[in-house]
Amino acid sequence: MTVLEKGNITIHTENIFPIIKKSLYTDHEIFLRELISNAVDAISKLKMASFAGEVSGEVPDPEIVIRVDDSNKTLSISDNGIGMTPDEIKKYINQVAFSSAEEFIQKYQKDANDLIGHFGLGFYSAFMVAKKVEIDTLSYQPGSPAIHWSCDGSPEFELTESSRTQIGTTVTLTLMDDEQEYLAPERIRQLVKTYSDFMSVPIKFDNEIINKQKSPWKESAQNLTSDDYLEFYRYLYPFQEEPLLWVHLNTDYPYLLNGILYFPKLRPDVDVSQGHIKLFCNQVFVSDHCEEIIPEFLMPLRGVIDSPDIPLNVSRSALTNHRTVRSIANHIAKKIADRLKSLYDETPEEYLRCWEDVGTFVKYGSLKDEKFKKQVEDILVYKTTYKPTETTSANDSPKIEVESDDVWQNVESEKQGEFTYEKAGYTTLKSYLERNKERHENRVFYCTDTNTQATYVELYKGQGIEILFMDSFIDTNYFIPFLEREYSEVKFSRVDSELDKTLLQEDKANEIVDPTTNKTRSEQIKEIFELALNKPQVNIRTEALKSDNPQSTPPAMVLLPEAMRRFREMMALSQQQGMEFPDDHVLVINTTHPLIENIYQLSQGSIVQASGDSPSQEMAKMLCQHVYDLALISQKGLDAEGMKSFVERSNQVLTRLTK
């Protein structure tokens, strides 16, 4: 064998290999990705040379072949690409050696774009797993000799003649003893599927093509059907529910960007703070951690982003901070907003189907991103108690129908006539304000908990007042205050914060002064409850609630003033604990309810016992406490001790009533 050349890679490279092995790449397995990527580059270069008329004869069908030799503990990657001349081997394979370790670090960590795509560094990743690396290559250039290059990981290399007769390159790795997992066929298949599945060149192993080759995100959106998008999603995320919607990215200015992003059906076990998007660079998988590219409020997105213009660090495993990354993040947010707007305008049924999962993140995006907020502010929808009739016009007063919760959930049940958001039980804030400006201008009544606030909602609905359901966890503490800043003239009132005057009626009988006590009936009822409850912090009010059927209204209601409740909720949130029910709240006694009238009559009992109260007065006190506890229960305001007392008192009341 004729030795063409021997030499040292460089006088400084005693520090290069430790950097490559220990610091440059965090995952040893990516060596196969790098070598396959180099092979694809070589095939692409031969194709370009052929188009330019520089190649004599036919160019063979491109392929990359992986082989394993268990007896010699070797792994080889072969391509039929452009090959290399002796001078090109020196230039590309040894280029790492042209600078000292210090210069190398400075050069490649400052500007990663000077590095990615260069054959040399990717090739040297082989030394993470191999104790010896050999190259057999034959250039497409006429008269160029076949060359064999070998290096054992020391600063020395050797160039000799090769027996190779086919244009292309084979890289052979003699694996280290502790890296022989890469001889296992299942490991090789797994690595190709992970990193090189969508490379356009067929990759053969054991006489079988083991990569998909076709990358849907590189296709034109016009060439893909819904089934194509769903099939790709199932391939990326098997055993998952179908996605809600998807967006196809395709732009070539001011950066190259392709991708398909999906908004998944959310499940309780999905961590929405972690990214799930796969980052590719020229169809080579780079990372599934690309949080910098995705706006924080769109973290649940899944899919693929592919861009050669995204700056990567030296190992291609993480992003570097760069204005291109920020620009791409803004572009993605805009495309998502555009997609939502098209759904809102063109297929409202689909929009509402997605809203239950998407809505919280759209609201969060409005809080975080001014541009995104401007795009989506007119398509934010809320469940509402408003239900239009066929004859309802824009000038009609809103018609409020009492419906079950299922109606608000079942969007698809609305099939008669033209579909509208209002028919499906949803509305925008703008529509709500316009519809109710005659009844309560610039006032929004809302509900955050359909269970605890059901009594209040029914009371408002009974008087034809429209209620918005703002029951997402983001609404109370964040989004409602945000809306109040955006619409400074609008006041938001939770249904249990106060009673609108529309709900109250004048009860002249309650205002007649009793000559024996010199007090009105309302004042006497208030005094009865104050004495029975003995809670100075509770502000007791008497009101006559409007109703065609007084029995259907609550005998008493607990109100939590809006400002005080919000302050307590924010304090609890900052301390990461639940809000304790405040001692200082409002108790409204409904003087029109028959139970309150009965309590009033009982309290007038004249037979006095030794305790100072008549039996009827004792019963009146117990009923006052009972009515109060019932009002607290509807607000989840009873603690363990309060609930115990309520149960005991309930038994006492029932016992007395059954004597």
TrEMBL record:
It comes from the Bacteria. Keywords: ATP-binding, Chaperone, Cytoplasm, Nucleotide-binding. Pfam families: HATPase_c_3, HSP90. The keyword Repeat does not apply. ATP binds at residues 34, 38, 79, 84, 169, 316. Residues 27-179 form the Histidine kinase/HSP90-like ATPase domain. One of its GO terms (molecular function) is ATP hydrolysis activity. The keyword Nucleotide-binding applies. Signal peptide: none annotated. Belongs to the heat shock protein 90 family. This is Chaperone protein HtpG.
